[in-house]
Design a protein that fits this description.
The chain is α+β, with helices and mostly antiparallel strands. About 40% of the residues lie in helices and about 25% in strands. It is built from three helices and three strands; from the N terminus they run αββααβ.
Amino acid sequence: MQELLKIIAQGLVEKPEEVSVTLDEPKEDGSVVYHLHVADMGRVIGKQGRIAKAIRVVMRAAATRSSEKVVVEID
């Protein structure tokens, strides 16, 4: 899951080598929080947050296949 998020973000930014993803400890409800760190946040968030919403949808769909709960935070 972490690699999927990194690949998606690297395809959006101008400097893909500056993309990093960190993982928090699982919460009580079983959800896992991924923190996406990028230099060019405007490209990852998009107009009115549309790209960020799309990234979250893709990550939730991928997590559903493996019976996980995923939260993506963009830092």
